[in-house]
Amino acid sequence: MKKFQSLSKQEISRYQSERLKELLAHAIKNVPAYKDLDHELIRSASNPADSIQHFPILTKKYFNENSESYISNTADRSQLIANRTGGSTGEPTRFYLDRVTVEHFEAARWLGLSWSGIQIGDPSVMVWGSSIELSKNQSQIHQLKEVFLKNRTIISAYDLKEESIRKYLDQIHSFKPNYLYGYPSALALLAELMIRNNLRLRIKLNAVVTTAETLQPQQREVIETAFDCKVINEYGARDGGIIAYECPEGNMHISAKNCYLEVVDIHTKQPLGYNEKGLLLVTDLNNYSMPRIRYQLGDVVSLSDKPCGCGNHLPILGSLEGREDDVFVSRDGSYVHGNYFNQVMWNLESFSGYQLIQHTHEDVSLKLVKNVGSHDFERDEQVFRDEIMKKLGNIHLSISFVNEIPRSSSGKIRYAVREFPLVTTPTSVEKEKEFTTLNL
Ligand SMILES: [Zn+2]
Question: pTM (2 decimals)?
Answer without folding.
Answer: 0.84
